[in-house]
Fold this sequence. Notes:
Blueprint: H1 2-7, E1 10-13, E2 16-19, H2 24-33, H3 35-38, H4 48-69, H5 85-98, E3 101-106, E4 114-119, H6 125-142, E5 149-151, E6 160-162, H7 173-189
Antiparallel strand pairs: 1-2, 3-4, 5-6
Helix pairs in contact: 4-5, 4-6, 5-6
Amino acid sequence: MLALEFVSTVRATRSGPVDTLSDVAGMTAWAREHAAGLGIGPGFTATEDLRREVVELRQAVRALFARAVAPDPASGADAHRLPGFAESLDLVNAAALAVPLAPRLEWPDAGAPVARTVPATEAAWSPRIRAALAASAIALLAGPERERLRTCPAPRCVLYFVKEHARQEWCSVGCGNRARAARHYHQHKAR
């Protein structure tokens, strides 16, 4: 899900928080990795202006995710730095409207038909990328997945995830292991 991948560009490692989009090289690499969802080619190269605009959009989407998981706590990565709800909602909606998107059917000679979402009009990279990201966030937040959106409660984790089954508590097996190890440590330390 592109929206989750997008907000997960802020994550935590053993050495602290990491922002994949902290520089133009990181933005370029992340965009190329998600080229199909963003409607860009493999030769795409980000600019500093695009990176700043995408990071601003990411913070707005993270603010909307924080609202979606309430009353549970928001991600600890940046909850104190998120823009306000109304401002975030306006920014996401404006980004989605900047470039109308439309489905396009592609049917290769030796394969099954595939639907891709593409810009309905020609547009510069920045509005195209931000429109695709905003549309993905809107689809997640307005769809049934919103009810299953969670913040990972594992120590040091700052990710959002969509709960796939009733017993899922963490975003990954690694986070579950880390949470259980921390709980075990605290139980035995108290003795």
